[in-house]
Amino acid sequence: MAMPPSIETQQQEVSGEDDNETYSFASQLVLGTCLPMALQTACELGILEIIAKAGPGAKLSATDIAAQLPTKSQGAPIMVDRIARLLASHNWLCCSVMWGGNLGITLHYITSEYPNINGINFDLPQVIQHAPSYSGIEHVASDMFVNVPHRDAIFLKLVLHDWSDEKCLRLLNNCHKAIPNNGKVIVVDSVVLVMAESTPSAKATFLLNMLMMTQSPGGKERKREEFVALATKAGFNNVKFECFDCD
Ligand SMILES: C[S@@+](CC[C@H](N)C(=O)[O-])C[C@H]1O[C@@H](n2cnc3c(N)ncnc32)[C@H](O)[C@@H]1O
């Protein structure tokens, strides 16, 4: 008779499964509170009624919906778009809406793996003062919107999504000035899908997008073309999407 798999075997099987899917599910657990908040907001604003009133098969853009809300905020269509994508990715909204440095830990992982890299960990003074020292890493305290230290490559992980397009442009301009002609700016952020798919990674991105909307004024996850537009405006001419860790 076959024995049930031991705990170790089960763990190996789980960790051997698709790590990205596991990561996406974990993100959904962490960010899960955004979903009921988005639903409540949609109900309180009457977004669902507006869609229902338009009738079956109606094609409403986020701008069409926002125009029927009492608010006059210019950002309303984008917020409606983000709420609708999240609800649609959970099949709660079946609609035809058209979608219009910290402490140096990450850098430490990189320099531990590649000791030939000398890294600068760059953040605000109030953060840098708590950063532990690591060999091969210099901590520099400054404001990235004022200037960025000159280096061959600049790594921005979960930074752009905190900021509006205007701020990102200022930062990317500073990065462009800070690297040589063959230098690189490596951005690690989520990419929002054009359609509201219901895959675990799409759900995790829509949840994160919702979190940014509530926690970081102007901050947002971006679509591919939005990244390209920002990078191009900042003077970069060779934009590549290299790795899709959560697909
Ligand atoms: C979301 S965290 C990302 C941290 C790190 N890249 C990571 O992935 O763990 C954003 C970081 O940007 C820093 N930051 C915010 N405004 C800044 C500024 N004006 N200049 C430099 N760093 C800034 C924050 O202190 C924070 O550590």
- Name the overall outline: elongated
| Helical run tally | 11
Strand order of the largest sheet: 1-2
User: Portion of residues in helices?
Assistant: 40-55%
Please report the distance between the alpha carbons of the first and last residues.
39 Å
Low-confidence runs: 1-14, 95-100
Biggest sheet details? 2 strands, parallel
Please report the total strand number as a whole number. Answer: 6
Spell out which ligands are present: S-adenosylmethionine
Quaternary: single chain
What is the residue-mean pLDDT, rounded to a whole number?
Answer: 84
Q: Which class of secondary structure composition applies to the elements? A: mainly alpha
Order of helices and strands: HHHHHHHEHEEHEEHEH
Radius of gyration: 21 Å
Q: Roughly what fraction of the amino acids lie in strands? A: 5-15%
Please explain how this structure is put together.
With 247 residues, the chain is mainly α. Helices cover 47% and strands 10% of the residues. The protein has helices at 7-16, 19-31, 34-45, 47-54, 62-67, 76-89, 105-113, 125-128, 165-178, 200-215, 224-233; strands spanning 119-123, 137-141, 153-157, 184-188, 191-192, 222-223. A two-stranded parallel ribbon has the order 1-2. Helix 3 packs across helix 6 and helix 6 runs antiparallel to helix 10. The two termini are 39 Å apart. The model is unreliable at 1-14 and 95-100 (pLDDT under 50).
